[in-house]
Amino acid sequence: MSEFNFQQNIQIKRVILVSSVVIFLMMGTYLNNTETQFETYEYPAISESIRERPIRSTTVARNNSYYDIMNMPQIEFNNLYKNPCWVGTDENGPLDDEKFHCLPYFYILGVKKSGTTDLFTRISKHPQFARPDMKESQWLTRIRFGVNAQYKSVQAILQRTKLDVRSVGFYVSMFDTAASSIMRTVTNIDDRAPYFRMITGDATPANLHMHTKWSKLPGNEGLTEPKYTNFHYIKHLTPEAKIIIIFREPVSRMLSDYLYLNRLRPTLIPEKFHRDSVRLTKAYEKCFLTYSQRRCIYNETLKETLRKTGTGMTPSFTAGFYAFYLKEIYEVFDKSNVLPILMTDYTENMKNVLSKVFDFLELDQPSTEQWKPILVKSIENESKFKRVKMLSKTKRLLEHFYRPHNEEMAKLLNDSRYLF
Ligand SMILES: *[C@@H]1O[C@H](CO)[C@@H](O)[C@H](O)[C@H]1NC(C)=O
Ligand SMILES: *[C@@H]1O[C@H](CO)[C@@H](O)[C@H](O)[C@H]1NC(C)=O
Ligand SMILES: *[C@@H]1O[C@H](CO)[C@@H](O)[C@H](O)[C@H]1NC(C)=O
Ligand SMILES: *[C@@H]1O[C@H](CO)[C@@H](O)[C@H](O)[C@H]1NC(C)=O
Question: Distance between CA 81 and CA 84 in Å, rounded?
């Protein structure tokens, strides 16, 4: 091979390499965006697809015990603020730094791949919303265990605060940007005192189904099902928290989630999705025969066993058990503090649903001018690739599998639309 040809060959290889990377990235975007035709969101998301990496010694203290949230004294919030906020002192709160801090007023608790990002982005355009640094903190599910701690926004907080990522103080610090806008904005002054009406929130959909390492956390050791879940931790940190959950038809949700997590060549997906669906549904059906639903759904070993056999989407498969998780939330929060939303209702009657969300969050209804940015249309609705479809046998299998769970959901909410 002549020198010229050799160079040319390298050039061609480079072009191929670069274009495959571009195609791969485009595919990622495509797989991410086709199912939900919403606008791209503005916050740096912490990608669900980032794999667990070794924990850096700087991000986690050396010993392996985790901060005991349930035994932490509850924070006394300052009632001049609508949002849960306070000044950190020795007697109050996890940070003794004399600084102003806030925790979320509301949480979007899932379900993953049902439009949570779109909803959060639209809420965040409300004039009484104070933006946090990120759409989802992922603190309860990942960051506090050092997972995803390499993420840029997490590292920035680490540099600034020098706090242990496991500490509640670290979670609190994730809302410092929001806290400073809440503190600066006196929105209502009556005769007695100023009142601060700005609120902030955390839209971590994994909080619904990822109760990471629950069996190792204080109070849960040695149990077969958790005494404390993410819902208890949220309640303990912010007792008046408002909870929003969007529910999407579970079979299409599962495919969307699967495509997001398994960025294979589209042609390979339908068969693999079928095989994995068979494995997942069989494993849970088998478990339900022996143990309680609760024990099976929280069984981390079961998830790990499935993952080790190469089954896709094992971490979030359980997210489809809507009625189960909603009942778990109702065990912890008053029903009046929980707003379930049907995704089709949201996409078809967006203004109406957002209006209900604003009422639920006790925000003012936006003016005509303020509605404009909130209701801005999606631009990202054209795909260059053909949409990946599931095989009809997979659809039948999954619909059959989810039917009793959907029936439970329809009963729970007295709404037949949840039969999907
Ligand atoms: C481990 O860390 C926790 C929290 O930082 C601390 O309270 C505890 O004393 C430590 N345990 C050991 C054995 O060092
Ligand atoms: C969880 O699942 C594994 C594997 O399927 C099983 O061996 C184990 O007994 C289960 N654990 C509980 C607490 O049910
Ligand atoms: C994208 O949305 C616009 C406006 O809603 C619509 O006219 C157009 O047909 C859509 N394109 C695709 C590919 O769905
Ligand atoms: C359930 O909904 C129906 C109609 O939507 C209503 O008539 C009925 O009173 C509701 N039942 C309960 C228990 O709320």
Answer: 7
Cα 260 to ligand 2 centre (Å): 28
153 falls in which pLDDT band (50, 70, 90)? confident
**pLDDT-derived band at 2, boundaries 50, 70, 90:** very low
Residue 83: both structure tokens together:
């949002």
The residue whose CA has the least distance to atom 8 of ligand 1 is 65
State the closest ligand 2 atom to the C-alpha of 287, by its place in the atom list counted from 1: 5
Looking from the CA of residue 67, the nearest atom of ligand 1 is: 4
State in words which class domain 34-48+75-419 has: alpha beta
Cα of 417 vs centre of ligand 4, distance in Å, is 13
Could you tell me which of 137, 126, 133, 92 has the C-alpha nearest to residue 197?
A: 126
Please give all residues whose beta carbon lies within 6 A of any atom in ligand 3, as ranges: 381-382
Residue 201: closest CA among 109, 111, 112, 79 = 109
Cis amide linkage into residue 251, ω under 30° from 0? no
Between 22-26, 39-43, 95-99, 335-339, the lowest mean confidence (pLDDT) is in: 39-43
Residue spans of the domains in the chain: they are 34-48+75-419
| pLDDT at 149 (0 to 100) | 78
Lowest mean per-residue pLDDT among 103-107, 110-114, 149-153, 203-207: 149-153
pLDDT (0 to 100) of residue 403 = 98
**Radius of gyration of the CA atoms of the chain, in A:** 23
Ligand in closest contact with the CA of 72: 1
DSSP E strands, 73-119: 85-87, 100-102, 106-108
Contact 376, 39 (CB under 8 A): yes
- Contacts (Cβ under 8 Å, ≥6 apart) of 23: none
For residue 283, give the ligand 2 atom closest to its CA. 5
CA dist., res. 89 & res. 344, Å (int): 46
Distance CA 377, CA 42 (A): 14
Q: How far is the CA of 321 from the centre of ligand 2 (A)?
A: 18
| Ligand 1 atom with minimal separation from the 63 CA | 1
Q: Which residues line ligand 2 (CB under 6 A)?
A: 224, 291, 295, 299, 301-302, 305
Contact 176, 101 (CB under 8 A): yes
